[in-house]
Amino acid sequence: QVQLVESGGGSVQPGGSLRLSCRVAGSIFDFNYMGWYRQAPGKQRELVASITRGGSINYADSVRGRFTISRDNAKKEVYLQMKSLKPEDTAAYYCNRVGATWPWGQGTQVTVSS
Q1: Which of 60, 84, 83, 56 is nearest to 70 (CA)?
Q2: Could you tell me if 51 and 31 are in contact, meaning their C-beta atoms sit under 8 angstroms apart?
Q3: Which string of DSSP letters, residue by residue, matches 39-77?
Q4: How would you list the strands of the sheet with 18-25, edge to edge?
Q5: Which pLDDT belongs to residue 28?
Q6: How many whole angstroms separate alpha carbon 25 and alpha carbon 44?
Q7: HSE (CB half, 13 Å, CA atoms) of 58?
Q8: What is the pLDDT of residues 29-76, one digit of tens each?
Q9: Contact, 95 vs 8, CB < 8 A?
Q10: What pLDDT does 110 receive?
Q11: What are the distances in angstroms from CA 25 to CA 29, 89, 106?
Q12: Alpha-carbon span 114 to 111, nearest angstrom
């Protein structure tokens, strides 16, 4: 019954910014350790940022200093503020819990190009 709904993606020039949102809908009992993942064509899905219920955060080296993950536990939402975007950030972005994932949502496409 869990639905993951990502939004906020789009096309942006290098150096631009986007803010992604993830809404976790449905009956859940474990909205705890959440993350943002991305998958580029021909590549495996990778975890780029994670955040615990209490706000402890980790980033992949590729995005550290440029991306900021946050969450609203009351709304069951997770956010990803992306700045200084690079072409290599181009991917479909997904949210999910870290560890035992729920079924994946549709994701939101981020395209960074000139």
Answers
A1: 56
A2: no
A3: E-TTS--EEEEEE-TT--EEE-TTTTTTEEEEEETTTTE
A4: 3-7, 18-25, 77-82, 67-72
A5: 80
A6: 26
A7: 10
A8: 788 999 999 999 999 999 999 999 989 999 999 999 999 999 999 999
A9: no
A10: 98
A11: 11, 27, 14
A12: 10
What pLDDT does 66 receive? Answer: 98
CA distances to 17, 28, 45 from 110, rounded to whole Å, are 10, 28, 14
- At residue 101, the pLDDT reads 93
Instruction: Please measure the distance between the N-terminal and C-terminal CA atoms of the chain and give it in whole angstroms.
Output: 40
107: left (phi over 0), alpha (psi -120 to 50) or beta: left
pLDDT band for position 1 (50/70/90)?
Answer: confident
Compute the distance between CA of residue 6 and CA of residue 3 in angstroms, rounded to an integer: 10
Using DSSP's 3-state secondary structure scheme, residue 85 falls into coil
Residue 90: pLDDT above 80?
A: yes
Give me the percent of the chain exceeding a pLDDT of 90: 92
